[in-house]
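Two records follow; treat each independently.
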Amino acid sequence: MAAYLRRDMEDAASYLEQTGNEFGAWLKFDIGQVERRLFEKMLTVADRTRIELAEFEARMHEAQTYHTGEITGPGVLRCEECGEELHFSEPGHIPPCPKCHATSFVRAKQ
């Protein structure tokens, strides 16, 4: 750590000597670099978060999708293709849609 600090102080002294500027100008330049780097890192995290959120939403949709042959509990399933509703009064196997023969369903909002 001491070596890094020494390097930075020597860099600051060199900058001040070469430019004739004050220490505050060097410090402001250094803070600007830190701000830019931090902003770049935040964008990277935001992009990764956006991708992970989209993947999560896709997994949630798949988890909420019921397929022909699976067992469902009582309630109403709606065909994702044509909107036909299948009513279940007790647990049972999900058949193909009686209207369009599709095999994907979601719970109907009541």
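The next record belongs to a different protein.
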Amino acid sequence: MPKGTMIIKHSIIALDQLVNAITGGWADETLSARAWRLRGRNNWWNFLRQAIDILFFFQPNHCSEAYHSEVERRQLPPEMRGG
């Protein structure tokens, strides 16, 4: 992926994490991952998960993938993922 594209992608993810943190979520978690994690808690989180998945129609199971990426630490640089 070209460097300019990566900068834009990382900036969007950082903004997403900021919105999540401002609304009471964990600082290093995206809203998508949080929506998946809390989807069974109440109708709001399940609705938000569905809305995000529709918005990201080009990424099947977007919220689930975002959550599992967090759990498996795939979003970290390779040298920080551990072994």
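Discussion point: The chain has one domain: 3-74. How would you locate this feature using only the token line?
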